[in-house]
Amino acid sequence: MGGRVFYAALASIFNVAGIFGAYLVGVSWLGLDSGIFWPQMQNNITIHYDVINGLIKSAAFGVAVTLIAVHQGFHCIPTSEGICAPARARWFRPP
After folding, report:
1. Phi-psi category of 31—alpha, beta or left, where left has phi over 0 and alpha has psi -120 to 50?
2. Within 10 Å of residue 66's Cβ, how many Cβ atoms?
3. How far is the C-alpha of 46 from the C-alpha of 53, rounded, in Å?
4. InterPro entries this protein is in (predicted)?
């Protein structure tokens, strides 16, 4: 539950940050008119395709990451070495 909500909240925050970043680049750096920028932004963003699908994808990713982490935690050896081992893949281990 926490992973699903957390990833969806992060996706919402980064969507807003991306829109304001586009405003900063477009209006401040490229010299676009802000009166044209916001109406075009509102016309080109669709609620279902852009926002809802993004939240669904981030929630699904949050569930997947949470389940993988819980599975790895349940199947590790209860020592400091055993807890650390699932976090490191075979190709990251020193020779």
Report:
1. left
2. 16
3. 10
4. Permease_MalE
As a whole number of angstroms, the distance between CA 54 and CA 76 comes to 33
Q: What is the pLDDT of residues 19-47, one digit of tens each?
A: 999 999 999 999 989 899 999 988 998 88
Q: Is 16 exposed, middle or buried (0-12, 13-18, 19+ CB in 10 A)?
A: exposed
Structure tokens at 8: 């969806």
* Strand stretches in 1-95, DSSP E: none
Predicted local distance difference test score (pLDDT) of residue 18: 92
Q: Please, are residues 66 and 4 in contact by the beta-carbon 8 Å criterion?
A: yes
Phi, psi (degrees; rounded to nearest 5) at 46: -100, 140
Instruction: Give the residue carrying structure tokens 């993004």.
Output: 54
